[in-house]
Amino acid sequence: MKYIKILPLCCKPYIDIADISFDLQLFAGEKTEDPTAKRMSDAQQKGQTAKSQDLSASIVILIGFFSLWGYGSYMYDEISHFMAKVFTSFPTSIDVEFVWQLVLSVVIVLAKSLLPIMFAVLLAGLALNYYQVGFIFTMEPLSFNLNRLNPITGMGRIFSKRSLMELFKSLAKILIVGYFVYLYIIDQVIQMPKIIFMDLQMALVTITDVIFRLAFEICAVLLVLGTIDFMFQKWQHKQDLKMSKQDIKDEFKQSEGDPQIKGKIKQKQKQMSMQRMMQEVPHADVIVTNPTHFAVALKYEQGMTAPVIVAKGQDLVAKRIKEIAREAKVVIVENKPLARALYLSTEIGDVVPQELYKAVAEVLAYVYRLKHKKLA
């Protein structure tokens, strides 16, 4: 590789453009290509997917508050009725049976109050995770890896570019959410002293309304941030999986096989097929030739519906077929139209086409008469 020429300071420095050249091998490993479907699938099986925890958390919290908001009055009624019943009918003496009945009643009331909300949150979490990554079952992320215990590698992950980005995102999220919470509290703080003059039930309703409005506002902000984060995670995931041109070539070799090896295998298979074909030539009844361009070997035995093509070839292969036929003393018949028609319309192992029956029958009759004369 040539470099830029620079003269000493006493002379006027110059750059010879003709001497500038680029070593393109420096760019061979650059990750410039989009990931292939196989690379995406392999990464997915390893648990490497584009997923936003912020989006999942925001929607799960939002569903939880919606469920609590719609189901809260029923929960309040169930718990208040239960507590009123317990305290009004509390026995003077407590025994083991009463304690067991009380515990069972508490469990039933809590189940009726909390299970619908927990079930709604569970369904929301599962649906959102399925939307982001699909259905994947893999144990590879849980497999034991000694590299995870390496403190140097761990420090590298802590101070990596991705970790700094996550830190920046967390700080930005805290600041944005804190700003909206501040605005809401400033707007509602004037209403707080009025709670002192309300009865208990009205005060609870007012506080609950304030809390739920604040929660929904925070969830809305988190939902927007989570959507942006999900789009960023998809982009970042694609960037992480980008491939170089050499990576794509290597993957193609692994999935499809090395073209050179495949070519050698095909060549070997062709040679073996050719050998098997040539081994059938001595057993043929007749060789129909062009005479120089085509050669087709026919064989007919008792019980066959029609003669069978046992070998065929063109040019050098045809020449080799005729050489083997002469050594085996197989009759060679020159018939240009028939040889060409048989070569073009049949494959090895096929029977003679019906439209060629008459022409082939005449050739075989000639061969049988020839053999009969020799025997006589």
TrEMBL record:
Membrane topology: Multi-pass membrane protein
Annotated GO biological process: bacterial-type flagellum assembly; protein secretion
Matching SUPFAM superfamilies: EscU C-terminal domain-like (SSF160544)
One family name in Pfam for this protein: Bac_export_2
Transmembrane segments: 55-76, 98-131, 171-190, 210-232
Keyword Cell membrane annotated: yes
GO cellular component, one term: plasma membrane
Alphabetically ordered keywords of this record: Bacterial flagellum biogenesis, Bacterial flagellum protein export, Cell membrane, Cell projection, Cilium, Flagellum, Membrane, Protein transport, Transmembrane, Transmembrane helix, Transport
Location in or out of the cell: Cell membrane
UniProt key word Cell cycle: no
InterPro entries: FlhB, T3SS_substrate_exporter, T3SS_substrate_exporter_C
The family this protein is said to belong to: Belongs to the type III secretion exporter family.
General function of this protein: Required for formation of the rod structure in the basal body of the flagellar apparatus. Together with FliI and FliH, may constitute the export apparatus of flagellin.
Protein name: Flagellar biosynthetic protein FlhB
Annotated source species: Pectinatus brassicae
